Design the sequence.
């Protein structure tokens, strides 16, 4: 395939950024999107130009670092991570616009790389449980209903990629926050801090500058791990309970 790429280039956080146009050819439909960017960077290196900075690690859809806006959609036209998006999703001659996440709490570091440490600070604000350290307890020593355990495990699949924030017109991280709250709140081990946790994490979310949720649902549609919208309902329910308790 021969493609026209319009890619956001920005030298640093304070620099003026803009879209630059590149041509790439000989792209196989079996390549991943990141492999296509690798081809572009090899071409730029050969021409003595600065390669495009983009973030990646596992390239297996696990780490969530390969976050890009592709033609205005988080991770592109398929509901998956960018590294698992293949070029068969595009056509020969297409023009593809590639941008970083657009959210104030995710400042651009360089080109397509953004700083998502705001997510880390939200988790640090309350993402822990009080548990004795030492050897692992016997698996059945703390009974947990299967439905709650499965829901907790499913919410733990959130990889913190930020697609929910990038897709939300309000720049809200409520889906991410709801997944983390539900992950710990469904299990017996998460009960001691359950309500203080939600207050602390919501407070950090707002402090970071994320917007409020207005139930548009674009976040759940874009989530590559299928986190459901109802985790936001659980988040709001726990927050109301916490406020009633005066926390």
Sequence:
């Amino acid at each position: 395939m021969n493609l026209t790429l319009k890619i956001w280039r920005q030298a640093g956080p304070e620099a003026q950024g803009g879209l630059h146009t590149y041509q790439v050819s000989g792209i196989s439909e079996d390549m991943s999107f990141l492999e296509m960017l690798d081809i572009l960077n090899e071409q730029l290196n050969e021409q003595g130009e600065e390669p495009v900075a983009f973030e990646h690690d596992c390239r297996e859809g696990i780490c969530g670092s390969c976050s890009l806006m592709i033609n205005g959609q988080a991770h592109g036209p398929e509901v998956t991570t960018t590294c698992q998006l293949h070029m068969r999703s595009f056509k020969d001659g297409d023009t593809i616009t590639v941008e970083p996440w657009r959210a104030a709490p995710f400042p651009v570091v360089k080109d397509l790389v953004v700083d998502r440490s705001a997510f880390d600070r939200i988790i640090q604000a309350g993402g822990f449980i009080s548990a004795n350290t030492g050897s692992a307890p016997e698996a059945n020593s703390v009974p947990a209903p299967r439905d709650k355990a499965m829901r907790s495990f499913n919410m733990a699949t959130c990889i913190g990629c930020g697609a929910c924030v990038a897709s939300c017109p309000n720049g809200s991280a409520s889906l991410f926050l709801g997944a983390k709250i539900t992950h710990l709140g469904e299990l017996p081990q998460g009960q001691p801090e359950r309500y203080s946790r939600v207050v602390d994490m919501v407070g950090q979310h707002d402090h970071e500058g994320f917007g409020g949720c207005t139930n548009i649902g674009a976040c759940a549609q874009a989530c590559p791990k299928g986190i459901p919208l109802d985790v936001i309902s659980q988040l709001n329910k726990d927050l109301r309970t916490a406020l009633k308790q005066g926390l």
Remarks:
- The first strand starts at residue 3 and ends at 9.
- Residues 194-208 form the longest helix (15 residues).
- The mean pLDDT is 94.
